């Protein structure tokens, strides 16, 4: 099939199935939304959720073994401790490839990783 015939086929399909008038014609057009709700500051007063025991244990282990590291640990499994997102920034990562950085963290957490279903790891040097 030639390019010209592909364009012709596409225009036939569009003619047979026109877009409803209420839908935006471009993917960059603003999405239609219901009437905006009144502003409420109640969401601002909520406290951040407490860290789970698993998050605290992983964070303290990494901070203990990587002195001066910026560590962020989140249980993204819904609280059951089977999947964590971990971000680590440390001087020891300077000059190392990402794979070597991840291996270093994986070696520190190898006993904990055995009990996990998944791990999202982000590492970087300052």
The main β sheet shows up as: 3 strands, mixed
What proportion strand?
15-25%
Annotated CATH topology of the domain at 53-124: GMP Synthetase, Chain A, domain 3
The total count of helices amounts to 4
CATH architecture label name of the domain at 53-124 = 2-Layer Sandwich
Cα gyration radius (Å) = 25 Å
Distance between the termini: 54 Å
The CATH class of the domain at 53-124 is identified as: Alpha Beta
pLDDT under 50 segments (min length 5)? none
Q: What value does the average pLDDT take?
A: 79
Helix-strand pattern: HHEEHHE
Overall body shape: elongated
Helical content class: 25-40%
Task: Name the CATH superfamily classification of the domain at 53-124.
Answer: BolA-like
Strand line-up across the major sheet: 1-2-3
InterPro entries: BolA, BolA-like_sf, Mt_Fe-S_assembly_factor
Pfam family, one: BolA
Protein name: Bola-like protein
GO cellular component, one term: mitochondrial matrix
């Amino acid at each position: 099939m030639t390019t010209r015939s592909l364009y012709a086929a596409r225009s036939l399909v569009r003619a047979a199935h026109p877009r409803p008038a209420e839908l935006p014609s471009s993917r960059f057009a603003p999405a239609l939304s219901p009437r905006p709700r009144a502003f409420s500051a109640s969401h601002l007063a909520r406290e951040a959720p407490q860290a789970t025991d698993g998050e605290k244990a992983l964070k303290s282990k990494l901070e203990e073994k990587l002195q001066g590291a910026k560590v962020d640990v989140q249980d993204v499994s819904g609280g059951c401790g089977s999947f964590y997102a971990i971000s680590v920034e440390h001087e020891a990562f300077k000059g190392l490839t990402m794979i070597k950085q991840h291996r270093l963290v994986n070696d520190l957490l190898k006993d904990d990783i055995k009990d996990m279903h998944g791990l999202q790891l982000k590492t970087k040097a300052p």
